[in-house]
């Protein structure tokens, strides 16, 4: 088996770690996890708004007229409009670029500072969108939302992974995914109600994004910084006090020693982005780079972005489509709770692999159903419509306990402290690149590839499941500052952990001496 187990040698002190779950720790993690609600609310609200008639009439009249012409018909190309999809994807392009600034803030000013910056930008973008008078205002507002998500997604997964004890790190980190899913779920209900408010219901949907931003900002003012970040900044006494407080014990010598050791290595690295490409960091670079891309290529975010649009294209009415997408987002919330209960018991690899198999089967069923029954200019029968919703819910349930939460958990825990902020920036960057590409291309692909787009996603899930089976070691219950020891035991990655014969290993030392 490709995965590793719990690391007990090579200088590890994990068996000496002590902790209790304290109220202080729970408060910090819940407040920080609110960052996921920004991402989730936007994922849920954008697809609903782009299917609302009042929104389309004001900004995209051509799409509205095409929709009315095929109101009760199945039509793959009903919503194929690149400016309309730019409304969605512009946010993720902005998040892509902002994450590099977020990396600097996260490393030098702390995880808490990035969380606060993200909430401010997201609030400003929500206000601009709510009062938009033209497409330019919409796009600028979306870009400000993107900056907020770039900062939040950069800092929150790191914050949760660093605050959590090793034995419950998986479940704690998945609070980010849980609040993301809750944001999607709530957004769908808001869209369902706002659609009935004419002609400004869409403004309410977009403007209510200020609520999670406000909660995140106010909560962020009271958040403690992570002990890892405080030690990295040289604030050792403060770091130890916070560590004792979040662990609920003064017996933190072993864990604090690991933090100091990791910090000394981190402080020697002057150019963390350059160090990412060091030979010894090749496992993290490859896994941390590909998992976020794979997460988007499952096809799940296409369903989240455009669930109302997809269901309308499948012949559902406008209200019914929003209701159906609410069901799928509720399924996502349920799946996250299941994953939180299993991830630290069964491990990351098993959840990835068994859910991947289910997702492949679901995509094939959707493709076959659409190939036989769809695209003939007629409404789908009620039975076929119900079948599609059920299969999509099974797909969402599989994704929600695997690629959804683990796509953020695994990258946030595999980088050493010296490259953790830079590594998380790469993770968010890759995630946003592929999120934007999927957002921009999915409706056009649905139009041109028709049911074949779902077969394409199935094939991609086969590839990514093979990658997980061969190249991802098991990280459950391994302390975050000892994850690097796993690579030394892995059948493939261990070759990158051995110094090269002439001593010229690319370990980032050039960056240390600059």
UniProtKB/TrEMBL annotation:
It is a multi-pass membrane protein. InterPro entries: MFS_dom (IPR020846), MFS_STP/MST-like_plant (IPR044778), MFS_sugar_transport-like (IPR005828), MFS_trans_sf (IPR036259), STP/PLT_plant (IPR045262), Sugar/inositol_transpt (IPR003663), Sugar_transporter_CS (IPR005829). The chain crosses the membrane at residues 21-41, 83-106, 113-132, 138-160, 172-194, 200-223, 285-310, 322-343, 350-372, 384-404, 425-445, 451-472. NCBIfam families: SP. Coiled coil: none annotated. Keywords: Membrane, Sugar transport, Symport, Transmembrane, Transmembrane helix, Transport. Residues 28-476 form the Major facilitator superfamily (MFS) profile domain. It comes from the Eukaryota. It is found in: Membrane. Belongs to the major facilitator superfamily. Phosphate:H(+) symporter (TC 2.A.1.9) family. PROSITE patterns: MFS, SUGAR_TRANSPORT_1, SUGAR_TRANSPORT_2. Pfam families: Sugar_tr. This is Major facilitator superfamily (MFS) profile domain-containing protein.
């Amino acid at each position: 088996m490709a995965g590793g187990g719990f690391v007990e040698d090579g200088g590890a002190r994990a068996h000496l770690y002590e902790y209790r779950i304290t109220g202080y720790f729970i408060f910090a993690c819940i407040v920080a996890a609110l960052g996921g609600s920004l991402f989730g609310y936007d994922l849920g609200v954008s697809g609903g708004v782009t299917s609302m008639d009042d929104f389309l009439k004001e900004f995209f009249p051509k799409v509205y007229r095409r929709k009315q012409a095929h109101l009760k018909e199945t039509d793959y190309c009903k919503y194929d409009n690149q400016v309309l999809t730019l409304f969605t994807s512009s946010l993720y392009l902005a998040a892509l670029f902002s994450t590099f600034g977020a990396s600097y803030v996260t490393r030098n000013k702390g995880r808490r500072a990035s969380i606060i910056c993200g909430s401010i930008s997201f609030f400003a973008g929500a206000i601009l969108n709510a009062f938009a008078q033209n497409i330019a205002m919409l796009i600028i507002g979306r870009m400000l939302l993107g900056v907020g998500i770039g900062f939040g997604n950069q800092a929150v997964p790191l914050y949760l992974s660093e605050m959590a004890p090793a034995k419950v790190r998986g479940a704690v980190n998945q609070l980010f995914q849980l609040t993301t899913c809750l944001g999607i779920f709530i957004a769908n209900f808001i869209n369902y109600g706002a659609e009935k408010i004419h002609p400004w219901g869409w403004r309410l949907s977009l403007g209510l994004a200020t609520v999670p931003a406000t909660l995140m900002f106010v909560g962020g003012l009271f958040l403690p910084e992570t002990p890892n970040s405080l030690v990295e900044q040289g604030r050792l006494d403060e770091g130890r006090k916070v560590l004792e407080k979040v662990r609920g014990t003064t017996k933190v010598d072993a864990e604090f020693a690991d933090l100091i050791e990791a910090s000394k290595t981190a402080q020697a690295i002057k150019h963390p982005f350059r160090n990412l490409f060091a030979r010894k960091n090749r496992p993290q670079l490859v896994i941390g780079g590909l998992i976020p891309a794979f997460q988007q290529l499952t096809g799940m975010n296409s369903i989240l972005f455009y669930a109302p649009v997809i269901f309308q294209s499948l012949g559902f009415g406008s209200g019914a489509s929003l209701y159906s997408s609410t069901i799928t987002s509720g399924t996502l919330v349920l799946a996250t709770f299941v994953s939180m209960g299993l991830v630290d018991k069964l491990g990351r690899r098993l959840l990835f692999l068994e859910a991947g198999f289910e997702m492949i089967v679901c995509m094939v069923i959707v493709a076959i159903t659409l190939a036989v029954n769809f695209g003939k200019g007629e409404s789908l029968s009620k039975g076929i419509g119900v079948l599609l919703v059920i299969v999509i819910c099974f797909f969402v349930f599989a994704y929600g306990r695997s690629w959804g939460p683990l796509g953020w958990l695994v990258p946030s825990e595999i980088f050493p402290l010296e490259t953790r902020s830079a590594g998380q920036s790469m993770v968010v960057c890759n995630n946003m690149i592929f999120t934007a590409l999927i957002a921009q291309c999915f409706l056009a692909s649905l139009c041109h590839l028709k049911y074949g787009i779902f077969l394409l996603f199935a094939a991609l899930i086969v590839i990514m499941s093979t990658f997980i089976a061969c190249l991802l070691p098991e990280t459950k219950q391994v302390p975050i500052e000892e994850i690097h020891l796993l690579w030394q035991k892995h059948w493939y990655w261990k070759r990158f952990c051995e110094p090269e014969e002439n001593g010229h290993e690319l370990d980032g030392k050039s960056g240390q001496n600059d």
